[in-house]
Secondary thiamine-phosphate synthase enzyme
Amino acid sequence: MLSFYDEIELPTGKSFEVIDITDQINRIVERSALKEGLVTITSLHTTCALAVNENEERLFDDIRNYFLTIAPEDQPYKHNDLHLRVNIPPDEPENAHAHLIAMMLGNSETLMVHNGSLVLGRYQSVLMLEMDGPRQRKCAVQVMGRS
């Protein structure tokens, strides 16, 4: 089995944002030259998540509204009591809600690679969900398989 590793770096522009990263992953799969196998994408942050779903702006609004209803930003989360935590940088945000949402969604996805391409359904895209932006974000991508 062969493997190929790369990273996707992208800036986010909003506090809660959904970004389609399918094209970036496809380019990495192509560069890997692997024809059959798996690709695993992992967010390298605790306040970002990954999901496979439809790339549609109105759905993105629904996703944001749904998760911020479950974990609203303005709740009295203990994680946000920054003055009670140790070794906190001065620019640390109050972001407990973002951690909770990321835990519900998960930080990785594994997809099949067939004939050198991602296997996705008609309306499926790989989405990175930012819950604590804007920030600079990274996702690790590992392609494993055979050429």
Observations:
- The mean pLDDT is 97.
- The first strand starts at residue 2 and ends at 11.
